Amino acid sequence: MDNRQEFIDIVAQYSNVSAEEMTDDMRFREDLGFSSLDFMSFLGELEDQFDVDIEQESALQVHTIGEALKMLEELQEA
C-alpha cells in the first residue's frame, strides 16, 4: 500500500466521507467534518504511522487533504 492510500485510509477513520470519495481539495473541517480533537488525534496517528514529527505551527497551516499530503512528503524527505 502506498503512502497516499494509507493516508486516505487514516483520514476516512475520522470522517463520514468514504476514502473513495475523497479529493485533494477537500478541507478537513468544512468538507470532512473534523473537529479540533479529531484533527489533533489524526495528526498523532500520522506521526505514528509514518514516523514523522509534525510541528503544531506547520499543522495549523494545513486545511486540505492535498496540503497535508504535501507536508507529509516534505517531512519524510527531511
Characterise the protein shown here.
The chain is mostly helical and 78 residues long. It has one domain (3-77): Non-ribosomal Peptide Synthetase Peptidyl Carrier Protein, Chain A. It has helices spanning 3-13, 36-50, 56-59, 65-77. Helix 1 packs antiparallel against helix 2. The radius of gyration is 11 Å and the shape is globular. The two termini are 22 Å apart.
What characterizes the major β-sheet?
Answer: none
Mind telling me the CATH superfamily name?
A: ACP-like
End-to-end C-alpha gap: 22 Å
Number of strands: 0
Provide the β-strand percentage band: under 5%
Helix fraction by DSSP (H/I, runs of at least 4): 55-70%
Gyration radius (Cα, Å) is 11 Å
How would you state the average pLDDT, rounded? 93
Rough outline: globular
Order of helices and strands: HHHH
Structural class: mainly alpha
Overall domain count: 1
CATH topology: Non-ribosomal Peptide Synthetase Peptidyl Carrier Protein, Chain A
Q: What is the CATH architecture descriptor?
A: Orthogonal Bundle
